[in-house]
Design goal:
This protein is α+β, with helices and mostly antiparallel strands and 202 residues long. The chain has two domains: 2-77, Glutaredoxin; 87-192, Glutathione S-transferase Yfyf (Class Pi), Chain A, domain 2 (Up-down Bundle). The chain has helices at residues 11-22, 42-45, 66-77, 87-117, 124-144, 158-170, 180-190, 193-198; strands spanning 2-6, 27-31, 55-58, 61-63.
């Protein structure tokens, strides 16, 4: 059974849970209370020196980065619908995974970490920077969804789970998508069992 070090308010950890539920993979969650600094403890640093979640442990294999975990699980279990082998579809999945990690995710961190989780200690300049970048990012995402149900075609993939986890994270700061394509897509992803079960308690 997989062991997943997890914090429910981490979009990175939630996207892995979404896949595990969606693919019926057995796993055990180990809670890392980031709100109390457990991710900085010596015990957890021995698991993940990057002091982040998630971390997946599979026997002797330990993987830290969420998108790498998604890829690993798909390849190991032959989850070709979630991570298609056809090169044009695979390229789209890879593109959106990297776009999320390199473009959207830093913006989400700027906004949500500093306006919600750090409270009065948050960096107001970072929040403004993030908010100023969002219109372009929403536009890119909306354009990428023209004429398609999901980011890589007619079926959801790990790209949808990854990007949607970041979009949901923005709702903690009362920020939601603006484009019609993106709104409709997010509703579709939000209806997936794995995505629903990954969400933190309301």
């Amino acid at each position: 059974m997989y062991v997943l070090y997890h914090f429910p308010y981490s979009q990175h950890a939630r996207r892995v849970v979404s896949l595990m539920v969606g693919a019926n993979l057995e796993y055990e969650l180990r809670h890392v209370d980031m709100g109390k600094g457990a991710h900085q403890s010596a015990e957890y640093l021995a698991v993940n020196p990057n002091h982040q979640v998630p971390t997946l442990v599979d026997g002797d294999i330990k993987i830290h980065e969420s998108n790498a975990i998604l890829r690993y699980l798909c390849v190991k279990h032959g989850l070709d619908t979630w991570y298609p082998k056809e090169l044009p579809l695979r390229a789209k999945v890879e593109q959106w995974l990297d776009w999320n990690q390199c473009r959207l995710s830093p913006t989400v961190v700027d906004i949500v970490l500093n306006s919600v989780f750090l409270g009065p200690k948050g960096d107001k300049a970072a929040v403004e920077r993030g908010l100023s970048r969002l219109p372009e990012l929403w536009s890119i995402l909306d354009a990428g969804l023209v004429g398609t149900q999901f980011l890589a075609g007619s079926r959801p993939t790990i790209a949808d789970l990854s990007v949607a986890s970041s979009v949901f994270q923005l709702t903690f700061a009362s920020v939601t998508p603006t484009g019609r394509n993106t709104v409709d897509w997010f509703q579709r992803v939000s209806g997936l069992e794995g995505f629903r079960k990954s969400l933190p308690p309301q």
